[in-house]
Design a protein that fits this description.
Layout lengths: L2 H25 L9 E6 L1 H8 L23 E7 L6 E3 L6 E3 L4 E7 L5 E6 L4 E3 L5 E3 L4 E2 L2 H6 L17 E2 L4 E4 L2 E5 L2 E4 L5 E4 L3 E4 L5 E3 L4 E3 L1 E3 L5 H34 L5
Helix pairs in contact: 1-4
Length: about 270
Amino acid sequence: MVKGLYTAYTGMINQMKRLDTMTNNLANADTNGYKSEFATSQSFDDVFSYKVKDLTESPRGYTPSYEGDITLGVKIGETYTDYSQGSLNETGNTFDLALGSQGFFAISFTNTAGETQFKLTRDGAFTMDAEGYLRTKDGDYVLNQQAALSGNASAAGYIRLDPNAAATIDRSGNIWQNDQYVGTIGVIDVDNYDTLEKYGENMYEIVDGGNIIDSDSAVYQGYLEMSNVQVVNNMVDMIVIQRAYESNQKLITTIDSMLQISSGQLGKV
C-alpha cells in the first residue's frame, strides 16, 4: 500500500471524527447543563512509543511490535469531556436549580424497559407534579441527599412536597415549606471524572471504579446552568477541520494521478 494514501486516509477519518464532535456540541449549545466534548488524536511517534512496549498483539505474547508494523498516519484517540462551569441564567422559577461548582443532581431514571437506574445530571430544570413529587422535565424523579450518597434510585429516595405550599430552597439544597424543613436536594460528586460515562446529552452514569463523594457545591434557586459550548470557537474549529479534510482529499487525488502516470505511461517504457 502507498504510505501517502494511508496517511491522507487516516487524516480524513480523524477530521470526520472531530467534525462529528463539533457538530454535536453545536447541536447542544442550548441544552441545559451540557458539557462540551473534544476528540483527541495520536501521531505516529506517540503510537510507536506505545507499540514497542505492547506485548499483547504478538502471536507468542512476548515480542513487541516493530516500527515497520505500524503504517504512517494519525490514529484517532479518545473523546474527552470538558466539565467546566457553564454560565447561570436567571429564570425566577421555583424549581429551576443550578449548581455553583463541581457536583451533580441525582435522579432516578426509568428507561424504556421500565428499569430504574441511578443517574447524574447538571440540568436542574425540575418541576413538581400534582402529587408533590419533584421530577425532571422528562418525568424522572429527583432524589434526596441520603439516596444520592448511597446511589439508591428506589422510591424511598423520592422528594415529595406539599403542592399547595410555596417552597424555598437554600444554598445547601434544603427545601423549606411553611418555615418547616421538608427535605434536601440530592447533590453529590464523583472522586474520578474518568469513571463518568455520558447517557444521552445531559445525563451521566458511574462506571466501575467510580465512587460517590459529597459535594460542597452551592444550589441556586431560580437559575439554570447553560451549556458550556463556546459557539464561536466551535465554528472556527469546523472551518479548520474542513480545510484539513480538503487538504488530505487533494493529496489522495495527487497520488492517484501519479499512480496513473506510473502504470499507464512509465510502465510502457
